[in-house]
Amino acid sequence: MSTFRRLPTLTQLRHLIAVSEHGHFGRAAQSCFITQSSLSASIRELETTLGETLIERTRRMVMMTPLGLETVSRAKSVLRAVEDIADLVSAAGAPLSGSLRLGVIPTIAPFLLPRVLPTLHRAYPDLKLYLSEKQSAPLIDDLEAGKLDLLLLAFPYPCEKLKTLAFADDPFWVAFPKGRLQSKKERLTSRDIEAETLLLLGEGNCLRDHALSACGLATGHQATEFQATSLHTLVQMVEGGLGVTLLPKMAIDAGIARSTGIQLRPIDGETLGRHIGFAWRPSSPREDEFRLLAEFFRDELATPLVLGKTAKLRTST
Q1: What is the band of 93 on the pLDDT scale with cuts at 50, 70, 90?
Q2: Mean pLDDT computed over 301-313
Q3: CA-CA-CA-CA torsion for 218, 224, 227, 231, nearest 10 degrees?
Q4: CA atoms of 26 and 57, how far apart (whole Å)
Q5: How confident is the model at residue 206 (pLDDT cuts 50, 70, 90)?
Q6: What is the Cα–Cα distance from 283 to 291, expressed in whole angstroms?
Q7: Average pLDDT over the chain, rounded to an integer
Q8: How many CB atoms lie within 10 A of CB 293?
Q9: What is the pLDDT of residues 223-250, one digit of tens each?
Q10: Distance from C-alpha of 6 to C-alpha of 3, rounded to nearest angstrom
Q11: Is the peptide bond before 118 cis (omega within 30 degrees of 0)?
Q12: What is the SS3 assignment for 237?
């Protein structure tokens, strides 16, 4: 005859993970939308259930014990597995319905999503899309932690542990102040901009690496010490005569350089750009949905752009 064994609840595991991530009971409670006393009681009950201390408490700080750290690591795996079960059941119903947590990088979100989402909403009205906009590395961390379901990224980017699917190419164009470079040429080459100061996004942004590698400028090229945090800032710096930059065609099509005095030219070459696509966990049961969504994005991008399209986005932080 087997004896009854009490097990931790999913809620208790979520609370433990929150304390580990925030290192503070008050902030952890806020992130879980409960009171600090309720969270403390939940952690005490978890420790009682397991019969071990998981958190070392002092007046100044909260520290996880070695056993607590191992428990947090396994708790994250448990929650990911449970969420995959929920996704599996959801995917068994109508395609692209229910909630989908999509992570997207800042050099794609404002230029692609307003174009695609209105049509997506009309085609799949039961899909509730929640967006999180961050750079690629933290997005991948959130995906692997189970906080997101799908990522919209620019490739190449190292994500060997994930499944990926590119659905569109996004070539680079040169943006330069009026009267600079050989503005009468219909297309430019990397040699045309070798003597120019290349304006770039800051370190950690994948578009910076894409722009450098596109023209073989990874080393030995003059780069300004001023690094922009967004493509819109880059455009303003170019208009101010500080240098030249490379802009993805997606941003140009969305009107990023409209009403400015800068000039734009495509670059000679077949592979001078980036690829746009999705990434997801190999364990996700929603792969068929993600591939269907990739086909939808691909087909929508193949249609002529209608300026002025807007979309109401659900966002999460």
Answers
A1: low
A2: 49
A3: -80
A4: 13
A5: confident
A6: 15
A7: 83
A8: 25
A9: 554 577 889 999 999 998 888 888 999 9
A10: 10
A11: no
A12: helix
Alpha carbon distance 231, 114 (integer Å): 16
User: How far apart (Å, rounded) are the C-alpha atoms in residues 74 and 178?
Assistant: 58
Domains of the chain, first to last: 10-88 (1.10.10.10), 99-317 (3.40.190.290)
Per-residue pLDDT, 182: 61
Give CA–CA dist 153/209, Å, rounded: 14
**Among 91, 52, 49, 89, which residue's Cα sits nearest to residue 68?**
52
Helix H or strand E segment including 19: helix 10-22
**Alpha carbon separation from 26 to 21, 56, 60, 71, 132 (Å, rounded):** 12, 15, 13, 21, 24
What pTM value is reported for the model? Answer: 0.70
| pLDDT greater at residue 98 or residue 91 | 98
Q: Which residues contact 315 (CB under 8 A, 6 or more apart)?
A: 130, 131, 132, 133
Residues 6+ apart with CB under 8 A from 67: 52, 53, 54
Three-class secondary structure assignment of 121-136: HHHCCCEEEEEEECCH
Greatest mean pLDDT among 42-46, 91-95, 96-100, 229-233 lies in 42-46
pLDDT at 81 over 90: no
Through-space distance between the first and last CA atoms of the chain, rounded to whole angstroms: 48
**pLDDT, mean of residues 153-163:** 92
How long is the chain?
317
Q: What is the mean pLDDT of residues 95-113?
A: 91
Residue 187, φ and ψ in degrees, nearest 5: -135, 150
What is the SS3 assignment for 166?
A: strand
d(CA 157, CA 277): 11
Residue 136: which residues within 8 A CB-CB, separation 6 or more?
105, 151, 153, 154, 157, 206
